[in-house]
Fold Lecithin--cholesterol acyltransferase.
Amino acid sequence: MTEPTTKRPRPRRLLTLALLSLLAATAAWSWWSEDHPRQERRLRVLVHDQLYDWFPAQMAPDDGWHGLRQRVAAPVPAQALRVLLIHGLDEPGTIWDDLAPALGAAGFEVWEFRYPNDQGIERSADYLAGHWPELPPGPPFALIGHSMGGLVARDFVSRRRHPVGEGAPVDGPAVAGVILVGTPNQGSEWARLRVWLELRDQFTTVEGRRFSLFAALRDGTGEAKIDLRPGSDFLRALNARPWPDAVPTRAIEGRLLAAPPEFAAGLEAAAADTGSAALRRRLAAWWNSIGAGLGDGVVTLESARDPGGGAPLVVNAAHRGLLLRLLPGDPPPPAIAPILDILRQWGAAPLPGVQGFSLGALQG
């Protein structure tokens, strides 16, 4: 008597089951993490720390890419300030390609800070604090942070370099001021799409940086995207912390949806035709609310407002377009000119506590 044969699952059926299981697990994780951001962050930190314990050499951030790097040497004669550039979340290293040459042409010595940007933002600020004493003595630094880089700068200054009412835990040059460019001071919902930004970051090859598994893990395990959510523990603590009076801040933000020149004329014509000034005001308010809510496409105008510095300077640009041209023939990015003006103002005023400088006149 012949034994009945057992049907083996077909490879296609196994693949389908595997994909369905993966989708179910992903959906369950997404549902849980949305409702438990604090626990998710702790889990991600635990994984990051465990990987560092298991693979200390591969996970060490001082890999030749991260850290401080002089981008433009001090011209002669040099400006009274030096500049440190701090990039944002999952930045492949090109955001400064237009600003750095402009700063150098204006006479500024320019440094760049690269850090594992998927880790918690406070860890990135601590990483900057660990490298800060390596900067050569001399004039103070103005920090320019793009996107999340502005939050790193704020956390570093208010907690590590110039904490209010405490001695400075970190030695090194003074901070002359902080310029926040497209910085989500109140958070950004775009942080939820970090996985796509990570692909842009890791697969863009620039200056000796190549994709590897450990390069991605070395950047962190996604804690930053939780810190960037509106109302996160990190943002609440940062925005509640006092800011040093001697360090001025300026915020610059982009607006994608600017009113065309004929829009105001159209509003006036509509008001004249209907005899209703209230209609004109309502239409103008409606349009402005759309532009403010959209902001630069990543950060809204309300989120860009610096808690201690007031409303941002608004220019017409997308998030990266604030500082970087899309094509070589495009006009200069609109945030560069105001950045140069702000730096010249700060460099022209004496800085308290540093011989020959004072920034007190720039407060308010």
User: Anything to note?
Assistant: Strands lie at 67-72, 82-86, 109-114, 141-146, 175-181, 249-254, 313-315. The chain is about 45% helix and 10% strand.
